[in-house]
Design goal:
It is a single chain. It is built from 11 helices and no strands. The protein is mainly alpha-helical. It has a single domain, classed as Up-down Bundle (Formate dehydrogenase/DMSO reductase fold), CATH 1.20.1630. The two termini are about 20 Å apart. The model has no long low-confidence stretch (mean pLDDT about 90).
Amino acid sequence: MDSVLSLQVGSVVALNAAFAWLVGSWLARRWFSASGVPRADAEALLRSGDIAAAVLGVLATGAMVWVSAAVMGGVGLQEAKDVVWQMLTMTSIGRAGYISFFAISLVLVFRLLHSTAKWRELTVLAALGLFAFVRASMGHAGENGFWTLPFAVEVIHLTAMGAWTGLVAVSAWKAMGSGAGQPDLNRIAHYLESMSAAAMVAVVAVFVTGLLNAWNRVGTVDNLLASSLYTTALLVKLCFVSVALVLGGYNKVFGLARARHSTPGLRTVRLVLIVESVVLLAALIAAAVLTSQQPPAAM
């Protein structure tokens, strides 16, 4: 894998992971509040992870703009520095790049602020929505314009995959961590039930939009079975998503019931969530490889 492709895949992975965390954290704040956790305590718990994710998103956006200039110009990364400004001002990918940078930077600014005002959360939500919309336009779905079914499907798919991954990651590494407050099983169970219900909605959306994306981009079974990096990455992604579904299903059917009544049950749920978050990160890596390749139906 050459340096251009490595940076292309790496920047997409970092960007999708940062977006996922920020979406998951935004949702977690709602459920902390509904579970009786003071808003200031929830902010103290989630703020450092949000800042780290937003910084990663800003850096990844810059890297993506740089590597996009290299890909469009057919040059190496060193030479691409000379055409970045031209790409930003004269191409749709460039405009999407600086809008994405603005959206993720806005999230960073608001997460740096020591505030729990409701209007701040609405602004962050709007910025994340703008990011998802613009991010979708930079992929294969944006090639035929914004007002198309494939583009709408891609926006929903990115948002749903981000929500699922983010919910699992934030719950595993922050909400249920040692710093999550007193071990109040009823409060944590209430949070987990809300998280599980939302994750189920996200999973359904990922499944439906994933099927539509595969139909649009792969086209036929012969294309799916053909040997190419795109179809290999797609099948690998499906495998990781399937494993994550099994882990999530275990927690929903067995884990949550045990977590309501015992601390060991709660620890088991968290362990499963940690494993699920790693598996979903692997799925994001496979998805990033997909975005770097031309789909079979377009050839």
